[in-house]
């Protein structure tokens, strides 16, 4: 006997059960990094589930939804969710080699 197929969710049910963004101090922080610009909590985001577009502070270009990227915020504990920044991985890795310039925050 064949198994039953899962039914499609009704429009009123879509979006329920979506994961909520974990708090900054949650166990999802993948690393803590030190550089000339300070201590940072860094989370690698695979990009498959995000639906927002972000602007990379390293190159000032858009990170389209679904793009793998890095989320970084100060590790000193003084900041909040509004201090998170979404970076292209190459921009994050090159931030020490960039000269100061205009940054959109």
Description:
It is built from one helix and six strands; from the N terminus they run E-E-E-E-E-E-H. With 105 residues, it is mainly beta. The strands form two sheets. The protein has a four-stranded antiparallel beta sheet with strand order 1-2-5-6. Strands 3-4 form a two-stranded antiparallel sheet. Strand 1 and strand 2 form a beta hairpin. The termini are far apart. Residues 13-21 have low confidence and may be disordered. It comes from Pseudonocardia kongjuensis. Residues 1-47 are annotated as: Disordered. This is ATP/GTP-binding protein. Residues 33-42 have a biased composition (Basic and acidic residues).
What's this, in brief?
It comes from Pseudonocardia kongjuensis. By secondary structure, this protein is mainly beta.
Shape: globular
Tally of strands: 6
SSE topology string: EEEEEEH
Strand order of the largest sheet: 1-2-5-6
Keywords:
single chain; mainly beta; two-stranded antiparallel ribbon; 5% helix; globular
Q: Topology of this protein?
A:
Layout: E1 31-35, E2 38-45, E3 54-55, E4 62-63, E5 69-74, E6 85-87, H1 89-93
Antiparallel strand pairs: 1-2, 2-5, 3-4, 5-6
């Amino acid at each position: 006997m064949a198994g039953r197929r899962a039914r499609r969710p009704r429009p009123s049910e879509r979006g329920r059960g979506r994961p909520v963004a974990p708090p900054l101090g949650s166990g999802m922080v993948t690393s803590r990094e030190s550089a000339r610009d300070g201590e940072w909590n860094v989370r690698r985001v695979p990009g498959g589930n995000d639906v927002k577009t972000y602007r990379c502070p390293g190159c000032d270009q858009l990170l389209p939804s679904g793009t793998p990227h890095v989320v970084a915020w100060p590790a000193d504990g003084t900041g909040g969710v509004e201090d998170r920044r979404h970076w292209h991985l190459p921009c994050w890795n090159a931030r020490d080699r960039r000269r100061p310039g205009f940054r959109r925050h």
